[in-house]
Specification:
This protein has two domains: about 15-45 and about 295-390, Alpha-Beta Complex (Aspartate Aminotransferase, domain 1), CATH 3.90.1150; about 60-290, Aspartate Aminotransferase, domain 2 (3-Layer(aba) Sandwich). The chain is about 40% helix and about 15% strand. The protein is built from 15 helices and 13 strands. The chain has a seven-stranded mixed beta sheet, with helices on both faces. The chain has a three-stranded mixed beta sheet with strand order 1-2-11. The chain has a three-stranded antiparallel beta sheet with strand order 10-13-12, covered by helices on one side. The protein starts with a helix and ends in a 10-residue tail after the last helix. The structure holds 4'-deoxy-4'-aminopyridoxal-5'-phosphate. 4'-deoxy-4'-aminopyridoxal-5'-phosphate (PMP) binds next to helix 5.
């Protein structure tokens, strides 16, 4: 590496302090399938840090569908959707997803991140306005950076602030409000009915990022617009397959015209290889299961409500969550790393969320539920969380939600 860049890389010390304390929690190697129990360093660990909300990543029917797709189509498409990378199953999945979320058409991208990058940057031009919740996902923020439009942020889920920000924008400008359906760290739900009202009043379009809402809320888990019965008021519905859908990839759904536009403008779609056959087939199989076994979603919510009850009874501060994503606030970076480490040693996998991802007085442990957890596993995790708090002399402080 030449000097200039080499010096910068050599000066990178961000992770050192936490590594020196033996508390580095990232890039942990898992030696098994992503399930409620995983194997790490040869030992069983209970998984409470997965986005596999419906617990489908190790489902025999989905694995079988993936294997059959490899047999029929091979392992990769060796090209973008635009050119040689469109298979019949890509088109089948697009039709299925459009019907699932209640839109005319959909198009697949290779990851959810690429959906937000490509869609936001291709729709908005100079003099347009992109209006974001301050807690929107990194892929939405990066999409805004690729777009030539101006970006305005409103305080998290604060509809007064959104109104204030919208009221200052030129009446005749194109405006797109983009928000997470369920916020990925806090677990709260977007205030969609109020956003729809404001969008009507100020002439804005709406895009919902349903990464964490698909398979979780709405009819058959079809997302936040369905949950509020506002599908016709949301212009664009974005989803990923890396969470409830047990695979990898993403999609955007909207009117035929909008999808046609995106297919010919979104650079992260046109200049990137298409979803692999096994990934597509897995999503089709996952969708079959989600649509035919709605009891899985009921079980996810039973688990979520049970975990919330136990956590609240124990006095933990879990913020305003309304979903299987439960933040356990610690509000101190070092203690968050320490508690994560104690839990890990005691066989519980959770994710620490510290600054700069959140302000340091909001650092938290992200505790997430799966439909396949048992009540006994949830009890064990909450007990161990309580013990870990005690070990670092932190008292769970009761904050009502
Ligand atoms: N949007 C949100 C809200 C997310 O949480 C994520 C992933 N964590 C993405 C988009 C990106 O999805 P993917 O993993 O499919 O790239």
């Amino acid at each position: 590496m030449r000097k200039k860049l080499g010096d910068r890389i050599a000066a990178f010390k961000d992770a050192n302090a936490i590594k020196e304390k033996g508390l580095y929690p990232y890039f942990r190697s898992i030696e098994s399938a992503q399930d409620t129990e995983v194997i790490i360093e040869g030992k069983k660990v209970l998984m409470f840090g997965s986005n596999s909300y419906l617990g489908l990543t190790n489902h025999p029917k989905i694995k079988e569908a993936a294997k059959l797709a490899v047999d029929k189509y091979g392992t990769g498409c060796a090209g973008s959707r635009f050119l040689n990378g469109t298979l019949d199953i890509h088109l089948e999945l697009e039709r299925r997803l459009a019907a699932y979320v209640g839109k005319e058409a959909a198009v697949l991208f290779s990851t959810g991140f690429q959906v937000n990058l490509g869609v936001i940057s291709c729709l908005l031009e100079r003099n347009d306005y992109l209006i974001l919740d301050e807690y929107d996902h990194a892929s939405i923020i990066d999409g805004s950076r690729l777009s030539f439009s101006r970006t305005i942020k409103y305080a998290h889920n604060d509809m007064e602030d959104l109104r204030k920000k919208l009221s200052r924008l030129p009446e005749d400008s194109a405006k797109l409000i983009v928000a997470d359906g369920i916020f990925s760290m806090e677990g709260d739900i977007v205030k969609l009915p109020e956003i729809v009202q404001l969008a009507d009043e100020f002439g804005a379009n709406i895009m919902m990022d349903d990464a964490h809402s698909l398979g979780v809320i709405g009819f058959n888990g079809s997302g936040v617009a369905s949950h509020f019965n506002l599908t016709n008021d949301v212009d664009l519905i974005m989803g990923t397959f890396s969470k409830s859908f047990a695979s990898l990839g993403g999609f955007i759904a909207g009117t035929e015209e909008t999808i046609e536009y995106i297919k010919h403008r979104a650079r992260s779609l046109m200049f990137s290889a298409s979803m692999t056959p096994s990934a597509v087939a897995s999503v089709i199989a996952a969708l079959d299961i989600i649509e035919s076994e709605p009891e899985r979603i009921d079980k996810l919510w039973d688990n979520t409500n049970y975990a919330k009850k136990l956590l609240l009874n124990a006095g933990f501060d879990i913020g305003h969550t309304d979903s299987p994503i439960i933040p356990v606030y610690i509000r101190d970076n070092d203690k968050t790393f320490l508690i994560t480490n104690i839990l890990h040693r005691n066989g519980i996998f959770v994710n620490p969320v510290v600054s700069p991802a959140v302000p340091s007085d909001s650092s938290l442990i992200r505790f997430s539920l799966m439909a396949t957890h048992t009540f006994a596993q949830i009890e064990e995790a909450v007990d161990k969380l309580y013990a870990a708090f005690k070990e670092v002399q932190l008292t769970p402080v009761k904050v009502s939600i």
